[in-house]
Design a protein that fits this description.
CATH class: Alpha Beta
Number of helices: 8
Number of strands: 6
Radius of gyration: 16 Å
Shape: globular
Structural class: alpha/beta
Mean pLDDT: 96
Strand order of the largest sheet: 3-2-1-4-5-6
């Protein structure tokens, strides 16, 4: 398990917590909220087995006066995003407390966690070759990160019930589209594999 990481994509307070940026804007989502408690046993098992827990953090980089740089397409989709949201080091930027702390944390500024980030570098430095991928949203950050991991020749398993989107159909379509580049498994399946491998059961 030393070469395996559970990669948690963007499971941040500003996305998930009722007091985060999305929650305050009324964009809470039951499917997304349910991912966190489902993942907790696997997070614990990966840690106990000697694997890594790696978190990615969507980031709005603050400019002068703290106003964030927001791409036009995101500003159009999410006009409520403002100063203080997803700011590095802030509460909203952090991974939800129920899953932390991560062994490695990487800021990201676009869909893929590999885009202009240090993710590939830290994974290689840690000796990680295998990724178990979970998080939000399935069709955005998860799918883009998985495809970029695939071309970098990581061995990838996507946890189907460890991911979610803002619509169930969007999630299902994204999972189907990832089957050519990744193994698709459930949290319970992976939990049994990790516990068996580590001799926990």
């Amino acid at each position: 398990m030393q070469d395996t990481a559970l990669l948690l994509c963007d499971l941040q307070n500003d996305f998930i917590h009722p007091e985060g940026a999305y929650g305050r804007a009324g964009l809470g989502n039951a499917d997304i909220a349910a991912v966190v408690p489902r993942l907790r046993p696997l997070v614990d098992a990966v840690r106990a087995a000697g694997g890594w827990v790696v978190s990615t953090h969507f980031t709005l980089v603050p400019g002068k006066g703290g106003a964030p740089f927001i791409s036009p397409h995101l500003k159009h989709l999410r006009p409520f995003l403002a100063k203080g949201d997803f700011v590095p080091g802030g509460w909203g930027h952090a991974m939800v407390e129920a899953l932390g702390p991560a062994d490695l944390a990487v800021e990201k500024v676009n869909f893929s966690a590999f885009y202009m980030s240090r993710l590939e570098w830290v994974l290689h430095r840690a000796g990680i070759k295998r990724l178990l991928v979970a998080g939000i949203v399935t069709s955005g950050g998860v799918a883009s990160t998985v495809r970029d991991a695939h071309v970098r020749e990581f061995e990838i398993t996507v946890l189907e019930d460890g991911c979610a989107a803002f619509a169930r159909e969007v999630h299902d379509n994204a999972i189907a589209a990832l089957r050519p580049v990744a193994r698709i498994a459930s949290i319970s399946e992976m939990l049994l594999e990790v516990e068996h491998f580590a001799g926990i059961r």
